[in-house]
Amino acid sequence: MTELVDARPVDGLAAVEAVLGDATDLGNPFGHAAIGTHDDAGRLAPGLPQALTVAGLGAALVPEAHGGRLRGLDGLVRVLRAVDRRDPAAALALGVTPFMAWANVWVAGDAGQRDAVGRLLAAGERAACAYHELDHGNDLTANALTARPDGDGWVLTGRKEVISNADFCAAAVVFARTEARPGPRSHSLFLLDAAVLGDPRARTLPRYRTAGMRGVRLTGLDLDGCPVPGDAVLGTPGRATETALRCFQLSRVVLPGATLGLLDTMLRLAVTALRGRSLYGGTALDLPATREVLAAAFLDLLVADAHVRAVARAASAAPEHLGPLASGVKALVPEILVGAVDRLGLLLGSQFFLRDGTGATVQKLVRDARPTSFGHASQVTCLVSLLPHLLRCARPDGPAPTVPAVLFDATDVGPVDVSRLRVAAPAGDLLAARAAGEPAAGWDARVAALAADVRARGLADTRVDASAAALDAAHAWTCAQAAGACLGLSDAGRTPLADPLVRAAALTRLALQARRHEAPLTRAAREHLLDLLLARVEGRLTLDLDPDPTLA
Amino acid sequence: MTAVTAVTEMTAATRPGSLAESLADRIAADAATGGPFGPDATAARDEAERFPDDEVRLLDAWGGPAAFVPARLGGAPGDVHDLFDVVRVLAEHDLTLAVGYCKTYLGAAPVWVAGGPEQQAQVARLVMVEHAVASWGLTEPGRGSDLAAGTTRARRRPDGAWVLDGTKWPVNNASRGRLLTVLARTADRPGPAGTSVLLVDGADIGPGGRTPLPKARTHGIRGADISGVRFSEAVLPAGALVGQEGTGLRTTLLALQFTRMVTAALSVAALTSAHRVVGEFAHARELHGTRLARLPHAARVLADAAAALDLVVSGCRTALGTSATRPAELSVVSALVKAGVPTLAQRHLTALAQLYGARGYLAPGPVSDGRFARLERDHRIVAIFDGSTAVNRAGVVAQLPVVAARHAARHAAGPAAGGDLLDLLAAARDRRPADYGGATLLSRDGCTLLGVLTDPSAPGAAGVLAGALSATLEAGRALRTVADRQEPAAVQLVARLELLYLAAAVELRRRAGELADDRAERALSLAARQVQALPLDAEVAA
């Protein structure tokens, strides 16, 4: 079984693959073995950040208009995923975290701030995004670090905890309380440059060590009356929560989208390891139960990539609609990813538990996968943020949105205009609407039933204290969004989802996922997907929708 | 709040005056006075990937090894029930310690199953008096769970002594165990009949005959001695043979029926600890102007974890009772428990981890003692070792037709009141000893406990579960060929049956008055939901 290798170039992807080299080469300083050794010691492979900068990773984060090469988020995701296939910690520290910081500057900064930070990142400097306080978790408006006006500037006091890159950055975005009163207009964003970060009143907290993502330096900032100039405010004072809600729309796609690289590598390693393991007179790959886990994980990867792809393209094509779509990705894709990684880990059995050879990489990936689900915004946070949108979409007289075909094709989708991002999206859901018209696997009836359920719950059940049943409805809705993405991509042809067998399997799998059910694939789908998977691994092609050449 | 009650209800219950209670008290006292059981010492030992030598020395001195020896040979009076509780107590402290310490039971189990009286008395003495560590040499490099494929050989010399050659790896405590039960090939013919179990006593072998292999670095249980051993021309006395020649695989499979039931205690302990840690956090955590535990989603996660605990604890209790009263059913029961308990526990550990957020991911430091991250990491091995979930499920699939037929026959005889099954619970309550001689490779009686779920018209979740059971078994009877039985759909049936077994145990305990109605109903409705989440026909369910 062969597929056509996609000829569409993604700027930076080939260069990143080239500097990473052959993952299986024991002598490669950026191969799995070397990366695993350094990860054990809690650091990235020496030289890796510099090499990735040379390959253009920093430039890939910043739009063309601000000195980089970023156009659509789909291209960025593919570049970050290449890094993630090799080392999720490197992708987080060198790609996703600086992008999250950049997103704030991009959305709220003035021309000078954008140019300054854009230049820094394109040159390979790191940035930190300092929102998190341990005592407040995902409750943004409760954050306590305070900024009070002082002459022309501000004085910042408080702590930001478990922050990636905080001790090692040229710029940091800090979310600070500027009004004592509770509510959404009491916080402002500040851009701290190297001069401020070098002030003795801006201390770095000791490193937090974690079970996974060990190469990421998680520290924090302890600001003790630290003076900050007046022009360090990002955007309008008091509007930080709104800025956050807009720039999270970008990061909620990019983070899970990048992390799918981890599943790609895990699946590749599993195929290779199981092929070589003889069991009961054959290889482990002959057992139907083994084939099922591999084929299902491959399908999961394709489905999740379809979801990410359509939403990443919506950032350019329909930015007004991005919020609920991005929340859907952040709620569902990590769940799919972690589930698949765990099942592969179990399948590999004792090989997964040993920390030598392939096992070392596999167990690293299992550990590295976890923060994808609770990091940045937890699943519950994303589901809660979807509830008001669901209610708007559920109105019987609601407008049927026009779904742009460009979400699903392979054209250049163009740059992202962040000024069009909205805190509250217009009624209508570009992806769930596509699923609502689909009878296969009962999607049309399911979406209608979800809408009726949401209407019956009403406005009272759309808040942070939402009932568990309301969250279940929101979760099912994210599956409808993913199903809509799969349908759109399937109709657009070209990817494996265009195959009727794969399309049907994807729709059934998402229908099961919508109820958090599990059931095996049909035998025909399993064998077809496995053939496709083995051919991809054999040909050293990536395992997501577009088979890119890879040395992972 | 249901969740509040649940936290206080769910601390490990140990029987007054039992070995487990005495160990729990001593561990708590040691931890409080800065001994090796203290949280910092435990965290530091894990970080350094060190074996818990200090803890083991104390446990030996406190009489711990009695847990590994049957009551009739002078071991703990509560036999396997005491052992289960001891594993649970140790694992609630630290899974590495439980795995490292309690391996001696696994190493000795083949002797309890098939050894001669003198051999049993000798091993009991060595374990209890000399605190000998016993280890179990089953797996070989590159062979995974395929036990019959081993290449370790034992030849009998004309003088009756055995000469052992081969490599066992990875093996828990291989380099610490004075005693090692080894599955070896003793005849040239292929297949199970060519295998025997031999008891190696390190004191009998010269230094050349037994070479320890280095400790493997593992993902979890980092301090455990997961190592190996290579035998070259190791000479064992004639009496080293355990049971009859040619019964090696049989002895091993029977011993696994007992060890698997005990291993499930690790999952019970992990879920207990996780529920406690996250429950305390959720009740203290202020969020969105309220407490985390008061948010409906968080309350559901905690309540479900508590219900899952009732399911796994109940299933383990009936399994322990089965080992005493219906040991011939253990081939089904212990496989259901060994596959079902870690799977259910892991699912709820994952949900609790989501609730706990970044804290659950932090290594020991100022914010966290690292306990949650450690137990979540360590628990993953429970589904792998002592027979993986896949291996146990395959063992049940093969017996599904018999389980279904026996269930149908009992059903035809009228709905079970459960009276005939109450002896399972009585055996657990009375701490009746395991009947090592009564185990069989296949269960002719199927699984009698399932008989409490025969009435689909029963009110509440019990009725739903009875319907699900009958559908599961009907599908099981339709598995005609070997190929059918290898299909993932067949494996899915067993996954359902595991939950149904645990639910049946809860229902039995409810009828016996061991569990209050509302609490039992919570557990049963969780089980019903989770069985429904494993539909028989994906196309229809979707």
Automatic annotation (TrEMBL), chain A:
Keywords: FAD, Flavoprotein, Oxidoreductase. InterPro entries: Acyl-CoA_Oxase/DH_mid-dom, Acyl-CoA_Oxase/DH_mid-dom_sf, AcylCo_DH-like_C, AcylCo_DH/oxidase_C, AcylCoA_DH/ox_N_sf, AcylCoA_DH/oxidase_NM_dom_sf. Pfam families: Acyl-CoA_dh_1, Acyl-CoA_dh_M. Gene3D superfamilies: Acyl-CoA dehydrogenase/oxidase, N-terminal domain, Butyryl-CoA Dehydrogenase, subunit A, domain 2, Butyryl-CoA Dehydrogenase, subunit A, domain 3. The keyword Plastid does not apply. Belongs to the acyl-CoA dehydrogenase family. This is Acyl-CoA dehydrogenase. It comes from Cellulomonas phragmiteti. The lineage of its organism: Bacteria, Bacillati, Actinomycetota, Actinomycetes, Micrococcales.
